[in-house]
Amino acid sequence: MSLFQTKAAAKGAAVPSSRCRSPSHQLALCFSVVAMSISGSSAFVPPKFSTRISWRSDRLASVPLHRLSAAETSKLPFGDNGFGPLGAFASTRDAGALDWSFVDAAYLITCPNADPESARLKGASAILSDLGLAAKVEIKEFDTDDEDRIRGCYTSHISVMKDAMNDIARKNRSMGRSSQNKGEWWQQLLPFPGSNGQAAGNSMESSQQAKILVIEDNIDVNGSLDKSGLEAIANFSSRPDEAWDMIHLSYIPYVPNLLVSKTDDPNMVKLSCGVGSALGTTAYIINESAMRQLIEEDEKRGYYAAIPDVMALRFPETRFASYPVPFLRAAKTPSLVNPQLDDLRSLLFQPGVVALTQSVLALSKLSSNNIFFATVASLLGISGVAGKITIDAGSQLMATGTYEGNIVLPVLSSLFSLLSLSIIAFGAAIAPKPPPTEDVENELI
């Protein structure tokens, strides 16, 4: 039972985080640190186009950004054309060129009681304005569930989906049509595989279903989104031959049992997920059928796992992502779920590190598990070889007083490998333990 209620009269408790802290097993964090260590550079960081400017505003719960009063708008860090009252913020991208009309609605989840200075909301609002989403986004405010932050995150996303389904139903009634999710009348009469909205049937309905964009207030951008990239996402979401439930505009690559594969569209990749593949909920598009499945599951079972884990179990083969993803979890935004990982997160969620890891997964065609074990084996091998060279050099110096060779490189290599392995061990030690896998899987039977 949820202990908190949104100010918009929708029950739930939002806790935006890197992935609403899914309790996926310790391999996830270990692999993420390895990805950071092998990148070793910020040279891959794409140019950012978001600017942070301090501002204060009295916010309204569940209100579109474009419906704020003139007094409230004047306090925002952006104006009609991207210029705020300070005159220092200017959009570096033509927001009008980005057409988000292919999504029926957009929602921003935030927790005002955990954001007293509006730092999180102001950053997200600036980004959304820069990308032409300010007029479309509806803010959903929740209080944190301080008894169970993971439950709070789960409840907030389910609450947003319920509100979205109600909005879709009202819109359909006003236009004199029934829910698009029902499909054709003959599909309801005949027991075709997938006719209940599962993966096999979505290919016939995806182009007609309503779809929404859900964003958390810890988003950041990497500067990769442009008009052609957004058009690719829109076209993919409307293809009648493609079965999909979710399209991630941000996902965490540091999770187990994840396989990223190419599609016939170079701007889209498929995310094949197993248990523990908690890709996060920073920014995603979800269609009507998928929302209905999650809501029905919630009505039957209630909260039993983190929302990213539930998504991974429900949609193992029907999730996709833009390539590259335009959003990512902000590296330096404190977590409301697992603050003990904030220091590691500040390194792992640097745009260049995330982009590099996602590219390795997509290009190598290897699962995250295989890459993780290969990386650990490589680090152990490098450490062993470098350590042997260092020991031999030390012995030669002690015996002869001289050493013929460059000792600096093996010493540095050995130190780097040992440091990486120690960070992996540290991450494994502090990573939250997952719930028993059998319990989660049984809930889906």
Blueprint (SSEs and pairs):
Elements: H1 27-39, H2 70-73, E1 105-110, H3 119-130, E2 137-141, H4 149-174, H5 185-189, H6 199-205, E3 211-216, E4 219-221, H7 227-237, E5 246-248, E6 258-262, E7 268-273, E8 283-287, H8 288-301, H9 307-314, E9 319-322, E10 327-329, H10 342-348, H11 351-364, H12 368-400, H13 408-430, H14 437-442
Parallel strand pairs: 1-2, 1-3, 5-9
Antiparallel strand pairs: 3-8, 4-10, 5-8, 6-7, 7-9
Helix pairs in contact: 1-12, 1-13, 4-8, 12-13
Question: Mind explaining what this structure looks like?
Answer:
- This protein has 445 residues and is an alpha/beta fold.
- The chain has one domain.
- Helices cover 41% and strands 10% of the residues.
- The chain contains 14 helices and ten strands.
- The strands form two sheets. Strands 2-1-3-8-5-9-7-6 form an eight-stranded mixed β-sheet, with helices on both faces. A two-stranded antiparallel ribbon has the order 4-10.
- β6 and β7 form a beta hairpin.
- α4 packs across α8.
- The radius of gyration is 24 Å and the shape is elongated.
- The relative contact order is 0.17.
